[in-house]
Specification:
mainly alpha, flat
Length: 116
C-alpha cells in the first residue's frame, strides 16, 4: 500500500509542477507538458515492479501509436478557444481526438497495427 501511495504522490507532484510552471511561462509549461513524463514514470514503475521486458516495450510501442491521433487536438484548441469558450472547446477537442483516433486506427490496421 505504501508503494501505491508513493506512486500517486510522485505522479501527482509532477502534474502539479507542470501546471504551476505553465502559470508562469507558456513556453516552458508547454515544453514540460509535451515531454512524455507520464510515460517515463509508467516505464519506471513497470520496471521497478519487475514486469517483463515485453510488457514494458509494448507499453512504449502503443503509447507512440496512441499519441499520434491526439496531435490535431493541440492545433484545434487554440483556434476554437476564442470562438467557443473553454468548456465547449474542450468537449470539441475530445470529439476531434476520438474521431482522429478511430480514423487513425482504421488506417494503421492496413499495416498490421491493431489499436482497437
Amino acid at each position: 500500500m505504501g508503494w501505491l501511495v508513493t506512486k500517486y504522490l510522485i505522479t501527482a507532484a509532477i502534474v502539479v509542477l507542470v501546471s504551476e510552471v505553465a502559470k508562469r511561462s507558456d513556453r516552458l509549461g508547454g515544453l514540460l507538458a509535451a515531454l512524455p513524463l507520464v510515460t517515463v514514470l509508467v516505464l519506471i514503475w513497470l520496471y521497478v515492479e519487475r514486469q517483463p521486458q515485453s510488457k514494458i516495450a509494448n507499453h512504449a510501442w502503443y503509447t507512440f501509436w496512441y499519441v499520434v491521433p491526439t496531435l490535431p487536438m493541440f492545433l484545434a484548441f487554440p483556434l476554437l478557444l476564442p470562438r467557443l469558450g473553454f468548456w465547449p472547446t474542450l468537449l470539441a477537442c475530445v470529439v476531434i481526438t476520438v474521431v482522429c483516433f478511430w480514423l487513425f486506427a482504421l488506417l494503421v490496421r492496413r499495416f498490421g497495427i491493431e489499436l482497437l
